[in-house]
Amino acid sequence: MKLFLPFLLYMVLFGPNFIFIDLFAIFNILMATLYIGYVLIRGQIEKPILFAIVFTAIALLFYIPTMIVYNFSEYDLAVEYLKLIVYIISSFFVVKLYSRYYKEKFYLKLLLHIYYSVLIVSFTVILFFVFPELRNFVYPLLASKMSSMWEVIRGIRYIDISVGAGTTLSLVFFVGFVLNVFLLREKILQNYIFTIMPLVFLVSAFLTARSGMFLIIGYTLLVLLSSFTIKLSRLSAFTYVNIFIVIGLFFYLFQSNNSTFASVIPWAFEIFINLIESGTFSTASTNNLFNDHYFFEFNYLELIFGKNYFNAPTDVGYLKILYANGIFGLFVFIIFYLYMFGTVLKNKNFELKHLKIMMLIFLSTILLINIKELIFTNSRGLFLMVLIIYFSIMEYSEVKKGKEI
Asked: 128-139 burial by CB neighbour count: b if 16+ within 10 A, else e?
């Protein structure tokens, strides 16, 4: 079990998505099916499963009339809701397995294994960067449409073998970065090598998307300013070593004549280059986002019920939901995240104080990023990580009370 559970967790989070097989989907469906079978045999439905069914039923109740009115021209949002049930059950099952095997402190072992999984993804991206031959061999085997993006083809952005590329993947590395800080604080990571491992996540985010990179830099400043940093030598060491290495790394990269670096750096730091050269705090993507992705073409009824247009030509998460199912659908979408936010806030387990803060940071980040890009069941491993951490908090609190969820 000591090797099986980390392997199972990795496949549930980041199972490779090849053109001939999607191991991520297979493992999540398998886990959900096994747990449903267990629930049927046991004859007792548990709260998270009940929540998944009730939430999805309400979401579909709002969405089905819109699909009927538009003759089922699209059903993509319905598929996302069905995936939600699978992901909730699958992630809950993973938490239960860890709880049964590792007992009371299971959540620390689970977070450590999530951290190792993200580290594998991070090294995968870096390997693709360092070895173009490997990249050129693997990319054609991947099902991700992002492997054909012009930025990926030109070597400006890189992808992994499961999530793909872009904001979602860079947020995965942000989660890994924050987990690194948490596990250092909890003294789960004992070796000093882990005080500089966050640099791996920063470089990976640098190679994938700017959102995660800037979040990591901002969180580093937050760690520096936080009071507990002073009390923890490893965390202090990590912060200062990380900053000095980053300064040295980017100084080298700016001086490098390497054509790949010459392509990546102007793209990654475009916002600062534009600020210096033209005084505008913007990038080509932000200009494109506000000019081409923020558009409202609704009458009053469409604004309320939607246009069954989930594939509207916009990346903005809230707008995609609005076009698909109107204000009703948007309300349900936001409530899903706010429900988790509220239950974490109401949790009174002081022992989980820093884990709860970490979870609230992740949820706040997702709500913020949806202004730019949809972060929901389409986000694969990122979404599953958030669900697993959330259920870990709930499960541990119930275990401490002497019962299960």
From this structure: bbeeeeebeebb
pLDDT in tens, 55-88: 888 888 889 988 998 888 888 999 999 999 999 9
How far apart are the C-alpha atoms of 152 and 300, rounded to whole Å? 41
Alpha carbon 42 to its chain's center:
33
Q: Which of 61, 53, 44, 17 is nearest to 331 (CA)?
A: 61
Residues in the chain, how many?
Answer: 405
CA distance 333 to 77: 11
d(CA 314, CA 331): 19
Q: What type of residue sits at position 299?
A: N
Burial 284-321 (b: 16+ CB within 10 A, else e): ebbeebeeebeeeeeeeebeebbbbbbebebbbbbbbb
Question: Whose CA is closest to 169, among 142, 131, 136?
Answer: 142
pTM for this prediction: 0.86
Contacts by 338-341, CB closer than 8 A, 24 or more apart:
340/386, 340/390
